[in-house]
Design goal:
By secondary structure, the chain is an alpha+beta fold. The protein contains 13 helices and 36 strands. β30 and β31 form a beta hairpin. It is elongated, with a radius of gyration of 35 Å.
Length: 706
C-alpha cells in the first residue's frame, strides 16, 4: 500500500499556533494540540533525528503493506490485546482542581482503552462510509504497579509546584520521568495549563531522550485529548499533516500533504462535524481522533498499522518495542494477573501549607502532598501551638492564637497501615503579635548584636545573606552587609524588621544610610524596600533602588568596603497615608543580586514629622541604661534640661505588655537622675524595652536581660 505523501512533506510545513477546538468534552473552549510544533522544532534542527523519523516512516509503510486490516483473534475467535503499555500519571498541582483524583485517572485510562479497542459507546455514530475501516487498535494501557525502584505503586505521582500554571518541558525535571533503571513507561505529565496555551502535546517516537519522552496534558481537557496525544506518541500526525494549522490559511495545494496514512482522506482539516464535508474532493473523516472535532470516535486501519509499526520498530525507536515486552511488563507490574486496585504501604509522606507568616488569630490550611505510590485514606496531624493541636482530616484548617514559631508533624495512612516514615517540619509557621513591638521613633544602629538578632529576621533564598559586620559603619563600628561580590545573578536575601505602630506620629518616614559601589563591568543589583501590615504574610513594594541610584562610591571590581562617611548615602522615604494609619508595620530590605558588588546599610530610623530621638528632645539628653545587657540589675540615667511636669518611665516586654513602672507620672525639675529598675520582678532572660515619656515626648531604649 502506497503512502499519499513523503515524510519530507509531512515534517516540513510551517507551524502556526491557533485556538481551534481540540478533542474533549463539548462545551469547553479547547485549544489546539502543540505536538506538531514541538516535534518539528526538534526535527528541523537535527538531521540525524530527521533521518531516523524517515526510516520509521518507511517501516510504517512496509508494515502497512504486509499487515493492513489484520485483526488478531484467540482460539475462540475473540479479538485480543496485542500490546500492553505501562503508564505513570504525574500530577503537578497547587492544591487546585488540577489535582485530579485517582478515580478520575482510573476513568481516563479506562476511556483510553475503550478508544484503542473500539469499545467506545459512540462508535455507533460512525459515518457509514468509514465504518468498514474503523479499527480496533488492540492496545491496552495499564497504570504501573511497580515503580522504577521496584516499590509498590498505584502508577500516580503528585507534586505541588507553580509549574502547573505554565506546563512545559520544565515539568519533566520537577517531576522526573520514570524511564530509568532499564524500566520504561508511557509518562503523562498533567497540570493546570500549558505555557503555549495548548491543550496537550506529545513527542513522536525517538524525537527526545527517554527522560523527556511522553505526553503533557491539562486537567481541564482530558477525555479524547488523551486519546489524541497518545496517537502522536505512537507516531500519528494530524489528519492534515504534521502542522498545527488546520483549515484556516490552507490552499488546495495542501491537499497533496497529509498524515502519511493511505486510508485517511486528504483534508485541509476541519472544525466541524458535518458528515458531508469535503475539502480535497472526497468526504473528510471528521470523526477521526487525530482531527480537531468534538465528534471524534475512531482510528482507521491504516492508522492502526502505523501505530503497530512504531511498536515493532526494528531499531526500537523511542523504546516502544521494549515497553510492551514481557520483561518490562513484569518489571513495571503490568503483567497478568494485573492488580486493578493495589494497596501500597505509603512512602515518603509530605505536606504543604498556604501560609508561613501570620498574625495572632489567623488560620493556616494544610494539605497532604500525597506520597507518590498510593492514596492516603487516613491522616494524623500534630500542630504545636495550633488550635486544634491535632487533626485526622485530610485538609485541616488550624488557628494560631499565640505569637511564636511552630512545628508540624504529619503521617498519612491507608488500608495497608500508616506510612513508613513521619513528615516533621520545624519552625515553619511564624505567628506575630497583633500588638506592635515598637512605637515611634525607632532606631537601629547595628551596634548591639543581641538586640539586632532579636529584632531582625534574615531570610536568604540563595547566595550570601545579610549579616551584622564590623567591616564598616556610618556611625559606631557595625553595620548590615551583603557580601555580594561572590553571589550569583538572582540571589536574594531579605532583612525583615520587627513590627512598628506608625499611628502614633503623623507623616512617618523611613530613613537609612547605605554604601554601595557598582562593578566596572556592570551588575544592576537592586535594593527593594517592602512593607507588610499582615505580619509578613504579604509584602508591598514602596521603593526600588537600582545599582545606579544606590551607588555612593567609585565603581570597582574589587570587593567594596566604604572608606569613610563620604562613601555613604542618606535615604528617606515618606510613608503613605495608609501605612501612617497602621499599627503593625514591618519593613523588608530585600536585596536582589545581579552579579554586582557588596552592599552596606546602617542607622535605620523610623520617625514622624518631628522626630523624637535622644539628641532631639530638648528637655532631656544622655538617656541611657547600664549595664546593658544585664544579669542582675540595671540603672536608667538621664539629664533633664528643663522641668518636666509629667514623667513616665515604663518597662515593657517584647509583646508591648507593661512589666513595671519605673516612674509613674511625677514631675521632675531640671537635673541629672539615676533610676534603678525594679529587680523584685525577677526578670526572665530576654528582650525588654524602656519607654521614656517626658510631657508626651517619647523615646525607647532596649534592655537585654541575660
Amino acid at each position: 500500500m502506497n503512502s499519499k505523501l513523503t515524510l519530507s512533506l509531512l515534517f516540513s510545513t510551517a507551524l502556526i499556533f491557533n485556538s481551534n477546538a481540540q478533542k474533549g468534552i463539548p462545551g469547553i473552549d479547547y485549544r489546539a494540540c502543540s505536538a506538531a510544533e514541538k516535534n518539528n522544532e526538534i526535527l528541523e534542527n537535527n538531521p540525524d533525528l530527521r533521518l531516523q523519523a524517515e526510516q520509521l516512516h518507511q517501516e510504517a509503510l512496509d508494515w502497512t503493506s504486509q499487515h493492513y486490516g489484520e485483526v488478531t483473534v484467540d482460539a475462540t475467535g475473540k479479538k485480543t490485546v496485542l500490546y500492553v503499555i505501562p503508564v505513570v500519571w504525574h500530577v503537578l498541582h497547587n492544591n487546585g482542581p488540577e489535582n485530579i483524583s485517582k478515580a478520575t485517572i482510573d476513568s481516563e485510562i479506562a476511556k483510553l482503552n475503550e478508544d484503542y479497542q473500539k469499545l467506545n459507546a459512540d462508535m455507533a455514530n460512525v459515518h457509514p462510509g468509514f465504518a468498514g475501516i474503523a479499527a480496533d487498535v488492540q492496545v491496552e494501557f495499564r497504570l504501573a504497579r511497580l515503580d522504577p525502584y521496584g516499590n509498590c505503586t498505584e502508577g500516580i505521582t503528585r507534586r505541588v509546584n507553580q509549574i502547573t500554571y505554565a506546563m512545559d518541558e520544565t515539568a519533566k525535571t520537577i517531576e522526573p520521568s520514570w524511564n530509568v533503571n532499564g524500566r520504561y513507561y508511557l509518562n503523562i505529565w498533567q497540570g493546570s495549563s500549558i505555557a503555549s496555551g495548548a491543550g496537550g502535546y506529545a513527542y513522536y517516537p525517538g524525537v527526545v531522550p527517554m527522560n523527556r519522552d511522553g505526553i503533557v496534558l491539562i486537567g481541564g481537557q482530558l477525555g479524547n485529548t488523551v486519546t489524541h496525544e497518545v496517537g502522536h506518541w505512537l507516531n500519528l500526525a494530524h489528519m492534515w499533516g504534521s502542522t498545527n494549522n488546520p483549515g484556516a490559511g490552507q490552499t488546495p495545494d495542501n491537499c497533496t500533504t497529509d498524515d502519511g496514512v493511505a486510508d485517511t482522506p486528504n483534508t485541509l482539516g476541519q472544525q466541524g462535524c458535518s458528515s458531508t464535508t469535503q475539502s480535497c474532493g472526497s468526504v473528510d473523516n471528521v470523526q477521526n481522533y487525530m482531527d480537531y472535532n468534538f465528534c471524534d470516535v475512531m482510528f482507521t486501519n491504516g492508522q492502526k498499522s502505523r501505530m503497530h509499526a512504531a511498536l515493532n520498530s526494528a531499531s526500537d525507536t523511542g523504546k516502544r518495542k521494549t515497553m510492551w515486552s514481557s520483561t518490562n511488563r513484569t518489571n513495571t507490574g503490568t503483567a497478568d494477573p494485573y492488580d486493578q486496585n493495589p494497596i501500597c504501604t505509603l512512602l515518603s509522606p509530605d505536606f504543604t501549607y498556604n501560609k508561613t507568616k501570620i498574625c495572632e488569630g489567623e488560620q493556616v490550611t494544610f494539605n497532604d502532598a500525597n506520597t507518590y505510590n498510593g492514596t492516603p485514606t487516613q491522616w494524623d496531624w500534630t500542630f504545636t501551638g495550633g488550635t486544634p493541636n491535632a487533626s485526622s482530616v485530610e485538609v485541616p484548617v488550624i488557628t494560631y492564637n499565640t505569637a511564636g514559631t511552630y512545628d508540624v508533624t504529619y503521617v498519612p495512612g491507608n488500608a495497608a497501615g500508616w506510612a513508613s516514615t513521619v513528615a516533621t517540619k520545624t519552625n515553619i509557621i511564624t505567628v506575630s503579635s497583633l500588638t506592635a513591638q515598637y512605637t515611634l521613633p525607632y532606631a537601629e544602629d547595628f551596634e548591639n548584636t543581641t538586640s539586632f538578632n532579636n529584632d531582625w529576621a534574615i531570610e536568604t533564598q540563595s547566595g550570601n545573606g545579610w549579616q551584622n559586620t564590623t567591616n564598616a559603619a556610618y556611625t559606631g563600628t557595625r553595620s548590615g552587609r551583603v557580601n555580594n561580590l561572590s553571589n550569583s545573578v538572582n540571589d536574594v536575601t531579605e532583612l525583615i524588621s520587627s513590627s512598628y505602630d506608625l499611628s502614633s506620629m503623623t507623616a512617618p518616614k523611613l530613613n537609612w544610610k547605605a554604601a554601595y559601589a557598582k562593578k566596572t563591568t556592570g551588575g544592576n543589583d537592586q535594593l527593594i524596600i517592602k512593607t507588610s501590615i499582615d505580619c509578613g504574610a504579604s509584602w508591598q513594594t514602596i521603593a526600588i533602588k537600582s545599582a545606579s541610584t544606590m551607588s555612593s562610591a567609585p565603581a570597582t571590581d574589587a570587593a567594596f568596603t566604604p572608606s569613610g562617611t563620604s562613601q555613604w548615602k542618606d535615604n528617606t522615604i515618606t510613608l503613605s497615608a495608609g501605612l501612617a494609619a497602621s499599627n503593625n508595620v514591618k519593613f523588608n530590605f530585600y536585596f536582589k543580586s545581579n552579579g554586582g558588588n557588596n552592599m552596606y546599610i546602617d542607622d535605620i530610623n523610623v520617625f514622624g514629622d518631628t522626630p523624637v530621638g535622644i539628641n532631639e528632645v530638648k528637655t532631656v539628653n544622655n538617656f541611657s541604661i547600664f549595664p546593658n545587657p544585664t544579669s542582675e540589675s540595671a540603672v536608667v540615667t538621664f539629664n533633664l534640661t528643663t522641668e518636666v511636669k509629667t514623667l513616665r518611665i515604663t518597662l515593657k516586654d517584647v509583646l508591648g505588655k507593661e512589666v513595671t513602672k519605673i516612674v509613674n507620672g511625677q514631675s521632675f525639675s531640671a537635673g541629672k537622675y539615676n533610676m534603678s529598675i525594679d529587680q523584685g520582678k525577677k526578670l526572665a532572660s530576654g528582650l525588654y524595652f524602656v519607654e521614656f515619656n517626658a510631657d508626651n515626648k517619647v523615646m525607647v531604649e532596649k534592655l537585654i536581660v541575660k
